[in-house]
Amino acid sequence: MVEANGDENMNSHRKNKKPWGWRLNTGIGTMVIAVLLAVALASKHSPNFSLFLDHHKICRCSKDSGELSGIIEDSCCDYETVNRINVAVLNPILQQLVKTSFFRYFKVKLWCDCPFWLDDGMCMLRDCSVCECPDNEFPESFKKPPHGSISSNPLICQRGDPQDTVDRTLATKTFRGWIAVDNPWTNDDETDNDEMTYVNLQLNPERYTGYTGASARRIWDAIYLDSSPKYSSGESCQEEKVLYKLISGLHSSISIHIAADYLLDVKTNQWGENLQLMYDRVLRYPDRVKNLYFTYLFVLRALTKASDYLQQAEYDSGDHAEDLEAQSLMQQLLENPELQDACPLPFDEAKLWQGKNGPELKQQIQKQFRNISSLMDCVGCEKCRLWGKLQVFGLGAALNILFSVDDMHNQGQPLQLHRNEVIALVNLLNKLSESIRIVNEKASSVERLMNGIPIEPPKQNIKLWQELWKTVINFGYRSQM
């Protein structure tokens, strides 16, 4: 009876015990499901990550990529040279230059009534607005306002990450070596100090703010209307095309910066790249990319034309060490032999205003651009207004350098720039340089994404996949024992 009971128990155990292969397969199947779920979660937070890679397809796609090549229209440089010089020379210097004390503070009039319509723009994010920060956040030279023009009870900013902080204050001194002059191409009055404030551009990055909808569209519609006038003859001259391409290139750059620093998830405050938006607004339109390059070379030409003036200027912000660095970086930028050899004349402004109606056309286009600068007061988002004003002001400075001082007809008229014009010009060139760098870095990835071809995952996601797969293998070995 005992043996019989033992056999029955053993037989019962064998019936209940699953085969080893079944247990292993079930365990591995469970782990694979877990791995797939984990990778799916990783893919959610990294849109460019794909579990299944087809490197053959990626390589084949890269061979057919639609990269721009040849001479840039209406300029004297080619795309390949511009890309190479931008990465090797211009972008690294500009990135350092805009961080110095002299170039990171921009004086701007943020509170103005729209001269064209009643503004009704709304922003989704608090980062769209500007508040006055406590005086102890700035150097001594920026603490006290002149003539008591700021309230004695300033608002306290909400503290957060540097990229989320917006602050402004007034300076107590005028930087030495600069004169207060008005640019005939823009509508801002640089002598109206009572309504101007200084903004730290490094604490106010150009990025997505949530400013969209009818108000934003109305701004751009009005800008393009002024940059693309229709004359009775129905013809468009070279000068009109230049103005349109400058505005289009600036628009492309702004869109690229918005897409490159986008709020992907409001609940988690997750920021990152929105490649779909970058493609929809810029990269799918070759003309918009071409106009970006054109605007970049136009502003670069203005900077190089003013080389003597800028090298002799006094960069004084009160921080002696940083001012010396700003002077040195400016000299490196303007005297770089590689830049001079590769692209000595980025844009030839001498070809414009040559006809009999040249002076009249120049005045007309100058008036149109002044209207565009006035439209910046209609932008409903304060941070958007800040960057809109700075970049339009910088473009106005470029126009002033290239067209207001004519070497042939006004040899006795010296170039005169306001300090704020130079700050805007350098920061604009940096933004355009960054946009070109982003386009070159992301264009192939965006193209693959739009064609439904997986993009090679970031290294951290590859590591995650390897670790998870190792866990599956180890689990299989443990199940075998």
Automatic annotation (TrEMBL):
Topology relative to the membrane: Peripheral membrane protein
Subunit record text: May function both as a monomer and a homodimer.
Protein name: Uncharacterized protein
Cofactor requirements of the protein: FAD
UniProt KW keywords: Disulfide bond, Electron transport, Endoplasmic reticulum, FAD, Flavoprotein, Glycoprotein, Membrane, Oxidoreductase, Redox-active center, Signal, Transport
Cellular component, GO, one term: endoplasmic reticulum membrane
GO biological process assignments: protein folding in endoplasmic reticulum
Lineage, opening ranks: Eukaryota, Viridiplantae, Streptophyta, Embryophyta, Tracheophyta
Organism: Daucus carota subsp. sativus (Carrot)
Annotated binding of FAD, by residue: 207, 209, 220, 248, 251, 281
SUPFAM superfamilies: ERO1-like (SSF110019)
Active site: 381 (nucleophile), 384
Signal peptide: none
MF annotations from Gene Ontology: FAD binding; protein-disulfide reductase activity; thiol oxidase activity
InterPro entries assigned: Ero1, ERO1-like_sf
A Pfam entry, by short name: ERO1
Keyword Lipid metabolism: no
Family: Belongs to the EROs family.
Disulphides: 123-128, 381-384
Localization of this protein: Endoplasmic reticulum membrane
